[in-house]
Amino acid sequence: QVQLVESGGGLVQTGGSLRLSCAASARTFSNSAMGWFRQAPGKERELVAIIGRDGNIDYADSVKGRFAISTDIAKNTFYLQMNSLKPEDTAVYYCKYNLDWGQGTQVTVSS
Hints:
Strand content: over 45%
Radius of gyration: 13 Å
Mean pLDDT: 94
């Protein structure tokens, strides 16, 4: 089981930016699928961004052009850069590495 430690959430105004980090205790970090999901109150958890095992990247339509997922293999860490944030981006954000989940970090965007 891989341990995942998330950081970077917080409160930001509409139009602001945040960067989420997810540090993974994995030996072969670059060989696995990894991604970010979010869950707003009363809603189901949804995919935000993902890097497949083949390196392909995909985003939810609602965040395309605003969010970017990236990795730092040397640090066993992947990131979610979130720009032009909107109130509807407010949610708990979870990172996922293969089948393992991070603890979640709250992102709140004020209008």
